[in-house]
Amino acid sequence: MGLPENIETRLFINGEFCESSDGKTFDIHNPSTLKLVAKVHEASEQDTDRAVAAAKAAFPSWSALSPDQRAIYFKKLANLIRESNEELGSLEAASMGKPVSTFFDAMACAAKWDHYAEVGYTVQGTTSVQTPGYINMTLRQPYGVVAAIIPWNVPLLFLANKLAPALIVGNTTVLKSSEKAPLTSAKLATLVQKAGFPPGVINIITGFGAVSGSILSHHMDVRALSFTGSGRTGRLIQAASAKSNLKQVMLELGGKSPAVIFEDADLMDAVKETVYSIQLNSGQVCMANSRVYVQDTIADKYIELFKTQFQQVTMGDPLEKGVNHGPQADEIQHKTVLRYLEMGKQSGDLVLGGAAPSDRKGYYIQPTIFTNTPEDATVMKEEIFGPVVNINIFKTEEEVLAKANNTEYGLYAAVYTKNIDRALRFAKGLEAGTIGVNCTSPSIGKDMPFGGYKSSGVGREGEPSYSLNNFLETKTCQGRVVIALELEPRAGLPHLVGRGPTIMSLKKNLANGTLANPNLQQIQTPSTRDRESSEEEEQREAEPVVESVNDLHEPLGCMMKDSQGKFRYIGAHSEIPFNAAVCSMRDNSKRRSSIIMPPKLGSFPPSLPTPSPSIDSCYPNEGNYLPTRETCDYYISRFLEEVHCTYWFYSIEAFLNRVESTYSTSTLLASNSWMCSLYAIFAIGATTPNERDGISPDQKTSTDYISLAKQLIPSVYDEADIDSIRALAIMSIALENLCSRVTSYLYMGASIQMAYSLGLHRDQMPGSGGSMEREQSRRIWWTLFMLDQEIASRGGSPNLIDERLLKIDTPLPSEQMLYPGMHTPLSWLSTSVDLCRLKRDIIQAVYPERSSSAKTVSFSTISGLLLSLQKWLQVIPPHLKHDVPAPPTQKRAVAVLHLHYWSSTVLLCRPFLLYLVLKRNELTSGKKTWFERMSKTCIDAAQKSVSILQQMAADNTLSSLTAFDSTCILRAIMIFILAYAHTKIQCYRSSIESSLALLRNMAQVGFCRIVAEETPMRLADLGISEDNKACNAGVLLDDDLIAQLWGSFDSDFMTPLQSQESLDLAFDDTSSFDLNSEILQFTNLDDSIILDPSHVFSSFDFR
Hints:
- This is Aldehyde dehydrogenase.
- Helices cover 45% and strands 11% of the residues.
- The chain is an alpha/beta fold.
- The protein starts with 10 loop residues before the first strand and ends in a 21-residue tail after the last helix.
C-alpha cells in the first residue's frame, strides 16, 4: 500500500483550501524511512483569526438548521471516510508511523459521524410549574464557535469525537491538528468539502501550539475548546481561558495507568491484554497500562509470560501488511523515550529491550520491561509514551491500592480478579476516570463517558449525552403567567386604574369580607419606558436651578488665525484653546490678544499640494493611476491594521475582492467614488515611505494621492452613493492628519449629508438591498456617528449628527450576520457608541455657549457625568477590558477604546485643574476639596492614557497614520504641564519627558511630526527645558506668577486662557460632602497623585 500522488497540505478555511498567509511550511518525514513526505502549511495568527471569523460568520445559518438537515452532511461524510480508508491509513503510517495492519481509525471515525447524525433530537431542556404564576424551562443552545485541538496518536478518532457532537447541536468549529500528524486531518478536509458542508462550518488548520493553539486558547470569539494532549499544554489552555473570556474548556490529558493482577486472575488473559495495551501504537496511547502490579505468588510466571508475549512483535515499515509495531512519531518523541530508558536502567532492573534496535534505521524502540522500580522513580511518575512497562510486585490489597493511586494521573486503571467483592472494592478505590475489571485499555464502554481524574483532565466525553452537553449552554427561561382578581373599589377611595392588587391587599380584603365576585383579568402595568420617562420628568422637576456668580465658561470659544490669514472659530471643547491657554500662561505680550496664535511650525492648513508631473499625464481615457500591486497591498494592510480597526467602512473580504477586481480589469470600469476611496487609503499608507522595507519605492507621495483623490471629488458628489460616503469619510481622516482641519470637517459633513440622503439614519434600504447590505449600511452609519464627533471635536465645531434634534431609527449592526473583521473585537462598535454619547453629554453640559445670564453647571451634573463614565468602564464586555489579554490583531482597537475613555475624563475634569492652578487662593475650603479631587481625576486620566500609549508602543500598535495617537499624547502633556507648574514635583516632569519620547519614537509624519517638533519649543517658552534648566526667564512658572498674570488681563478681552478657566460650580446636591457618597468614593484616588506641593510623589500604579 503506497502513498497517494497528491497529498493535501493546505489550510481549510471557510470552505476553501489556502496556503498560509505568511508562506511558512514545515516538513513531515516518514518516521520509518526518514524520507520527506510533505511540506505542510503552518497556520499563522492571521490564518487562525480568519478561521475563527469564518466559523463565526457561518454560525447563524448552521445553528438555524434542524438536526435532520445537519445529519445529511454527516451521513455523506461518513460514507466518504469509509471509501478513503486505505488512503487515510497510508497517510497515518507515513506521518506518524501507525502500521496499516492495525489501522482501525477511519472506520471508527465514520461510525462516530453516523452515530451523531442520529442524536440531534435527544437534546432537550426541562420544564417546571412548581413556582406559582410561572412556567419555567431550560433551553439547551449551542455556544457558537468551538475550537478543537487534537493529538497526533489517533487524530481521526479524536477529530470525530470532538467535531461531530459540537456540530450536530449547532456549533461551528475550528480544528487544529497536530504538527506531527496533520495529513489525515487535511485529507478529511477534502472530504468535508466534497460532502457539501456550508463554508465556515468546519475549518481545519495545522501548526504549532505556540502560535495557532495559543490564538485559539486566547481568542475572544471561541466560546468552548476541547483539547486532548499533554498536561503541560492543558494547563496553558486553562490559563488562557481564564485570561480571556473564560471559555468552556474540556481537557483529556495524559495518563500513567496501573493494572493490578491478583493471584486468582485468569493469567493468560491478563498477560495478553496488558501486553496489547502497552504495545498498541508503539505505546503511544494515553491510557496504556504502563504500570503493572502483580501479586507475589504469581509474579515470576506472569513476568515470564509477559516477556514472551511482548517479544512477539513484528517491527517494520508501517506501510507493509503484517507489521504490528511501528516507529515512534518523530525524532523528538524518539529522543524522549530513549532518555526515559536511561533513567529506567538506573532505577530498576531491565528485563527486556531498553534501546533502539541497532539493525534498523528510523525512530524505533524495542519493547522494554523494567521490574523492581522504586515508586518514586521518574519512570514510575511521568508519562513516557512509548512501548515501556514497569512491572512491580505486591503482597496485600492495601499495599497495591496505595501504590496504584500514588500518581498525579488518573485516566484509566484495571484490576484482574475473580473475587467480585475485591473487584468492587478496587473499582471504588482506584482513583481514575475509567476502571477495567478483568479487562484493560484500550477497552472502553461505547455507552459510557470517558475522562480523567486529577491531572488527567477536566470533563467527560462519550455517552449518554456527555459529549453533546460539552457543547451546549443551559439557559433558564422564566415565563410569567400574570392573572389577578378584579376588586371592587374600597369605600371612600378612588379606584386605581392599571395598578394590580398586592398580596397584602388581597389578604386584607379577604379578612374584611370585601373580596366578592372575583373575575379573572390581565393586570395592565405601565411599560418600563413609561416608568423611566416619568421618573426622568419628576427628577427634572425636582432638580434645583442654581444661580452662580460666574458661568462655567462665559463666552467660550476663540478665534484662530490660520496659515492663509483667515480667522477660524474654535469651540471651547476643542483641544486647541485649552492647549493655547496652557502654553500662553507666562507670556504677558499675549494677555490682550483674543486670537489664538498659529503654530510655530508648519501650516494649518498646509499649502495646496503640488502634484507630481506624472499626474498630469493621467487622462481619463488612459484610466486611473494605480501603484504596483505589492505597494497597494502594503498600503491596504496598514490601513486595515491601524485605521479600519476603529473606522469601519468595508467588509474585509468584499473589499479585498474589489481591489483584486480593480487590478485585474481596467480602472475605467471602476466608479469615481471607489477610486477616490482607494486614493485616500493610498494617501494614508504613503505617509510613512521609510517603513516600506523590501518594497520598491512608489512613484507617488501621500500628497500626490490626495491630489488624485481631489480631482475626483466633483464626480464623487454627483454619484452620492454608499461609496461616496466612504470616500469622503476616509478623505476626512487623511486630511485631518495632514493638518487640513477645516477641509476634513467639510468632507465629513458632505459624507454625512449623503448618508442622510440615502436614509442611513432611518435604516432605509432600496428594495433590492439584502440583509447583508443593510448590516453594512448600519455599521457605516454608526462609524460616521463616532467619526463626526471626533472630527468636530478637534476644532470645537458642532456635530453634524445631533440626536437631540434628529430622530435616528438605525439600530446597531448584528455582528452575527456581519463580522467586523479580525482587527476589530466584537461589541467594540456598540461600546464605543455608548462612550461617544457620554462624551457628547459632557460637551453639552460643560462646554455650551451660554450668555452671561445663563445658569451654571451644577455639582450634580458634573458628578453624574463622572459616575456615568465610571459605570461605562465597569460594564464593558470582559474581552474589551484593558487588563484582559487581547489577540495581537485586536490590541490597537482595545487600546484606542480606552484612550477615548480617558480623554473623555480629561475633557470633563480639565477646567477644574486649570482653575485650581490659577485661582487656588480664591476657592473656599469646601469648593477647594472638590476642585482638587476633580484635578486629581484629570491627572490620573492623563497618566492612565500614557500607560496605555506606552503599551501600544511596546506592542507596535502606536500609529502616525491618523491624528488620534499624537493628539492623545499632546493632551496628556498639557495636563502634566499644569501639574508640574502647580507642584514642581519631578514625577510630572518625568511624565512630560516620557510622553515626548513616545512622540519621537513614532513615524515623524503628518500631525505627529508637528507635535513632536513644536511641543519642546512651547515647553521652553514656559521655562520647562529638556535639560532640567530654566529657559528664557529668570523665574520658573508657578502659581503666584500665573495669578499675577491673570490679574493684569484686560477685562475687555477674553483670551483662550480666560475662556477656559472662568469657572464656578454650584453645589445643588446636599450630599456633596457626605463621606459615604458614591462620587466622593470614586474621586478618592490614591495618594500617588499629588496636588499639594508640600507632599512628595511616591509612585504611580496603573490599575
